[in-house]
Amino acid sequence: MAYKDVTVKTLLQTVEDKRFENTTIQLDGWVRTNRDNGSIGFIELNDGSCFKNVQLVYTSDNPNISILTSVRTGACISITGQVVYTPQGKQPLEIKVLSCQLNGDVMDDYPLQKKRHSFEFLREIAHLRPRANTFNALFRVRNVLSMAIHQFFQDNDFMYVHTPIITTNDGEGAGNVFDVVTHDQKDENSFYGRRVNLTVTGQLHVEPFALAFRKVYTFGPVFRAEHSNTIRHASEFWMIEPEMAFCDLNENMDVIEACVKYCIQTLFDKCPDEMNFFNTMIDSTLIERLKHVLHSEFKRMTYTRTIELLKEAVANGHKFENSNIEWGMDLQSEHEKYITEQIVKGPVFLIDYPKEIKAFYMKENPDQKTVAACDLLVPAVGELVGGSQREENYERLCNKMIKLGIKDELDWYLDTRRYGGCIHSGFGIGFDRLLMYVTGMQNIRDVQPYPRTSNTIKY
Amino acid sequence: MAYKDVTVKTLLQTVEDKRFENTTIQLDGWVRTNRDNGSIGFIELNDGSCFKNVQLVYTSDNPNISILTSVRTGACISITGQVVYTPQGKQPLEIKVLSCQLNGDVMDDYPLQKKRHSFEFLREIAHLRPRANTFNALFRVRNVLSMAIHQFFQDNDFMYVHTPIITTNDGEGAGNVFDVVTHDQKDENSFYGRRVNLTVTGQLHVEPFALAFRKVYTFGPVFRAEHSNTIRHASEFWMIEPEMAFCDLNENMDVIEACVKYCIQTLFDKCPDEMNFFNTMIDSTLIERLKHVLHSEFKRMTYTRTIELLKEAVANGHKFENSNIEWGMDLQSEHEKYITEQIVKGPVFLIDYPKEIKAFYMKENPDQKTVAACDLLVPAVGELVGGSQREENYERLCNKMIKLGIKDELDWYLDTRRYGGCIHSGFGIGFDRLLMYVTGMQNIRDVQPYPRTSNTIKY
């Protein structure tokens, strides 16, 4: 299938063999910049096929010179031109324009001028910012990272499952859910005959599939109606939730480590231009940091040991916002960062958390105080992945769910422990946060195509 | 990464080289059937790694004979055993059981017994039906088809875009949307400061990305609050919506044809067992029908010509439920099926529909009566894909949107025609209906993991 043969991407692949030397080609794309000095002019054209632009060169004798000299940033043009390879030049090739046609001009108020715009400003024009360099790079990496996720799990025999978005399960009843209603009838919950909400996790729905297909994963949107106006919270984001039968906590961590490394390696392999851009423009430690993770063996440390180390740190004068370190506490981001950055100096799994601060479905350890949970911490961001071995014991899980008052509504979930249950584990990766991590972008609003955060929605 | 080395899938790959001849291996899986005649017993085990089961053979001298003889359909076991290749047998290998451990028994009320259950019954236990043969096959094909979609678009340089689920865009104001609200405050629309709903299409959000990245696609859930209690309607389903800059209607159809053929070929290549199962158990014309599509050149026919042919059919005595054929009418499924099955006898694109019955964003043809739309019809189901060239003319699109009263709310969408617009086209494939088509399954409730249709929601 070839619906347009030549693109900037395919052209750049001919730099070695110079296949198009002096060949006349057609290109369609958008003007990034246009400057001329009277006798000669240069247009930077991006045609969407790759991150890089191509330089068009035109001279004053061009039959379409009036279009060429007047065409503005953002306009869409089609040109014919001759390919000239310039191995000594800053760019490996340029196009000598023979003709130019204006497909779509830009109105005078085009907001994306040839200057640096703030991310705040660009957020206001989410539908246009893909044309800005940072977002050009960002959404390309988002695509490649999405596919890396699929490829990793498919290569390892996981089956992709589309868990439902509209559900009766409100997580653990925490209340921070979006309800789904129809207004076409008096009873707003009449469509399904009961109250429903947007999913906060696909895990409970995917576990039954793991007990049939062994290794499965979800990759889809989840929702949190939290009014957390931070740079790391969005009300809609994509999650990856793998689940594996016959898999304990240690094997679970093996898979997490392999998955994170596979994603990073894929970005280095497939997006070198974009990754270099982020390293240059966004975070100069990015590539070094990711390479360090790629070549690290991820350490494993118990929560209990972590608390000891944090207490020692406080005793030795380290100041945390919360320096009241007690076994049983929920670790804050500052504590997690201290452990991974100052103590381990690399990626580390914290395991065996107090059962009171973790979800009901996690497997109770023999000590009856902790559960077989694992959180992966990495330098610069803290928690990146959370997982656990699941409680496969019917009685124990059932009792927990009765205490939480969720047994009746989730009775079907208990069936996975009634009928042919087994040791199984899984984890969750917030895709958007992973994307922030691998690009150095600091605000979740700047890694989503149309970010969804509280109080702001335009599209 | 190898967290469990031997599975039924990997075992079946050794049938040629007999690598595991007389080797002792471990297998974990679920009992499908268990029968013994006193001295020898047979367990059909499925371990989730592939559609096929493996046969376990045990004799009365086994140290775990009491477990082996009593273990029931649905129970989860781990065994060690010796691999015996049986090239002359019905199955290419079997496992002589050395030991057996019961991981998870089934309670007495296990609803999936060793007999044929109706699809209606199985819908009531959506969380358990993946263990039934049809759904074992179905969800494997769902996975492979999902990946075929991604692979096709990635191989052809399309970029995957996650368009938002929560949106202010209610399609064309048709009213069949789910609203999204929070109940934690007095004003249920306070979270975003305005009324929002679940997306009915990602197209409007992805078009701006096509004007930056050239070729893009969405693949995610969409929602319709229609009370259509039919076998083809679900209120939540997955859609694929590609969008291409510099692409007209004809090129659009080229891509659709290539995409459909790629998906079918991939299923034949990757799911032969499952496809044979569907052909044997669900629809005996399935494989023949799909091969016919694979080897057909998809025809193209105008809506106007279609109306002529339908009128001729009526004149010649063909009875439709609606035999009142008039130019301007919306074609019903019976008309579409007649055209593809009786007239064309193969896949056909109908093009150039009356503008009144198609969406506002479609490109008006020079006749000013029709728009550059294309619907792909295929035998047995009728419409499979719908697409169009988009109206790139700002004035014309703007006027249409003013008439519909949607200009203000979608002003950002008009920016794609204000700033560097170009000819572009796209299409939509309902993923679940495509899956019905390629498996022969008749009810959309039987191709979704947890189907969402009006009045029924349990999970």
Explain what the structure shows:
Two copies of one chain form a homodimer. Chain A has 459 residues and is an alpha+beta fold. In chain A, 31% of the residues lie in helices and 24% in strands. The first copy, chain A, has an eight-stranded mixed sheet. A five-stranded mixed barrel of chain A has the order 1-2-3-5-4. A three-stranded antiparallel sheet of chain A has the order 7-9-8, with no helix packed on it. In chain A, strand 14 and strand 15 form a beta hairpin. The longest helix of chain A has 23 residues. The radius of gyration of chain A is 27 Å and the shape is elongated. Chain A starts with 7 loop residues before the first helix and ends in a 20-residue tail after the last helix. The model of chain A has no long low-confidence stretch (mean pLDDT 94). Chains A and B meet through strand 1, helix 4, strand 6, strand 7 and strand 8 of A and strand 1, helix 4, strand 6, strand 7 and strand 8 of B. Strand 8 of chain A pairs antiparallel with strand 8 of chain B.
